[in-house]
Amino acid sequence: MSNQHTEHTPDLHTERVEAFYTSVKRLGHWTRSRTIDLRTRRSSVHLDLRSAELPEGDIELRLLSERSTLKLLLPEDAVLDERELTLVGRCKIKDRERHVPHHGRVVRLTGTLQRGEIRVARGGVATLSVMFSREFIDDCRTAHRDGTWPVLPDPGRVYEHPEAEQHRKAAASPSR
Question: What is the pTM of this model?
Answer without folding.
Answer: 0.80
